[in-house]
Structure to design on (519 residues):
């Protein structure tokens, strides 16, 4: 059980999880572990970025105790945060590490919520000096098809799949979007249906057919759409607030 | 005290119905409305459900389907409510306790498959037809071409099972068309037996009428989301694309006025 972060290499998974623990939170607070402790584990001060997740471990297993403020009050999500190294999605890694891959599959199949962190594609990126560093829309769509196949064949019982298009600061005005999408208990501008529809139509157009395929293939699956950025707290918290409504005990 | 089971196919809105039921006191007090009944959640699960109604339905999201986990039927949510009904000015209020188990739709659908025997399905049937169950609220939701045949098969088999368990003459069935806020159905809500079941599910209606004692059978129309306003009968719901088919969410939380949630339960518990 628990919530798991997955995604390709350098999609920003570790940094997202680390920033979630930042004590400057609005409605989501990581009670345990401590931000400084996590930072010492995950952040490389010389590189000014998070350390790459070690592929040989397949995933980091870290207990996360999160408090989410919902309309009816504070709720706790007791969860395991499993941060996967991007390497594990490569076929050769899976073949060379059969036991670890199986261990990972067992974990993901038992997870209540999956946050799939997606990087932006080249045509979407506007605020970056070198958009060539990002994969093209075509490659992005092809890659997503592999995710669809993974969910269909390897974990056909998943319930909550949250697609997070990360690094939103590179492709939109995060402040404007956060004003529109942000969550304020009992007086948000948008409700979940409106947020979902807005993000789905605005940022996920190239993979609409893939989403349709996913919805038709897995019964009882709820796919929801988010844009996230470590530079905007509102956007960063939204997936966890959404999960909090369903998974909090 | 009445044990009532709420059953129905997948996506017939069972959990949402129960959540709205548990949230009715908050909804009534928000609107400052007086009513001739009161409903009070009695156990932790029904209180949690009321909170979920606020965190999920009011916030424009929808419930995930109920599933059977490792605990089998005993692991399924079990809700307990106290219903207080006041009929007439001078009459004393009646207190009725209602205990409801929320079953996943797929175990209900398996009734149609006579050859299928699995432990969970068997537990479901045993519990539904136990002697201390007063009645079943059966929620149907589809009415498009072809579904009548399927519901007919399910109900024929269910009636056989009732007979085998000696419940055919003493189990009350409230058969309801749920999600009646849909434009095509809303107009038929006043006389659902004639204007909904006779028209859209004639075979299902006939097998029930032919097999069940009339005093133990009633047809209902109910709507958990209701319509926007009495002068604006547009459904208070939005359909969004989702798994298998569309998922429905509440459109205007401030106009949330469920229709006919209590009547079937009251009748079943008598």
């Amino acid at each position: 059980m628990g919530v798991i972060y997955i995604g390709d290499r350098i999609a920003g998974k570790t940094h997202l999880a680390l920033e979630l623990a930042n004590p400057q939170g609005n409605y989501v607070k990581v009670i345990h572990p401590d931000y400084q402790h996590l930072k010492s584990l995950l952040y490389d001060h010389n590189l000014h970025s998070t350390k790459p997740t070690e592929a040989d471990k397949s995933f980091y297993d870290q207990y996360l105790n999160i408090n989410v403020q919902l309309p009816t009050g504070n709720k706790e999500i007791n969860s395991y945060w499993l941060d996967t190294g991007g390497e594990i999605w490569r076929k050769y890694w899976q073949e060379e590490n059969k036991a670890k891959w199986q261990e990972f599959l067992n974990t993901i199949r038992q997870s209540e919520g999956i946050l799939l962190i997606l990087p932006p594609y080249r045509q979407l990126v506007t605020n970056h000096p070198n958009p060539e560093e990002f994969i093209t829309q075509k490659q992005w769509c092809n890659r997503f098809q592999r995710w669809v196949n993974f969910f269909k064949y390897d974990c056909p019982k998943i319930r909550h799949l949250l697609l997070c298009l990360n690094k939103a600061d590179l492709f939109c005005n995060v402040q404007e979007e956060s004003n529109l999408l942000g969550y304020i208990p009992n007086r948000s501008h948008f409700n979940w249906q409106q947020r979902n529809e807005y993000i789905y139509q605005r940022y996920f157009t190239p993979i609409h057919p893939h989403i349709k395929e996913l919805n038709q293939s897995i019964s009882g699956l709820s796919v929801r759409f988010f844009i996230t950025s470590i530079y905007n707290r509102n956007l960063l918290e939204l997936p966890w607030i959404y999960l909090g409504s369903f998974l909090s005990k | 005290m009445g044990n009532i089971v709420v059953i129905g196919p997948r996506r017939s809105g069972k959990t949402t119905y129960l959540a709205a039921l548990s949230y009715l006191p908050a909804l009534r007090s928000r609107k400052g409305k007086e009513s001739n009944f009161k409903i009070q959640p009695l156990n932790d699960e029904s209180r949690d459900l009321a909170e979920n109604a606020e965190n999920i339905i009011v916030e424009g999201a929808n419930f995930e389907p109920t599933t059977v986990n490792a605990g089998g039927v005993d692991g399924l949510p079990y809700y307990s409510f106290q219903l207080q009904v006041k009929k007439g000015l001078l009459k004393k209020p009646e207190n009725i306790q209602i205990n409801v188990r929320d079953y996943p739709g797929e175990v209900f659908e398996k009734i149609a498959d006579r050859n299928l025997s699995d432990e969970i399905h068997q537990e479901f049937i045993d519990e539904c037809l136990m002697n201390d169950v007063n009645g079943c609220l059966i929620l149907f939701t589809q009415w498009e071409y072809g579904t009548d045949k399927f519901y007919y098969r399910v109900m024929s088999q269910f009636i056989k099972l009732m007979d085998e368990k000696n419940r055919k003459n003493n189990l009350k069935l409230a058969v309801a068309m749920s999600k009646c806020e849909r434009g095509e159905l809303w107009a038929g809500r006043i006389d659902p037996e004639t204007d909904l079941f006779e028209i859209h599910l004639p075979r299902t209606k006939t097998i029930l009428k032919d097999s069940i004692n009339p005093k133990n059978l009633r047809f209902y129309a109910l709507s958990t989301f209701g319509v926007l306003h009495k002068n604006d009968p547009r459904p208070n719901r939005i359909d969004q694309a989702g798994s298998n088919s569309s998922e429905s969410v509440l459109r205007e939380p401030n106009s949330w006025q469920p229709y006919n949630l209590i009547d079937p339960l009251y009748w079943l518990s008598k």
In short: The mean pLDDT of chain A is 87. The first strand of chain A starts at residue 3 and ends at 7. DSSP finds nine helices and nine strands in chain A. The interface with chain B takes residues 70-72, 75, 159-160, 188, 190-194, 196-197, 211-212, 215-216, 218-223, 242, 244-246 of chain A (CB under 8 Å).
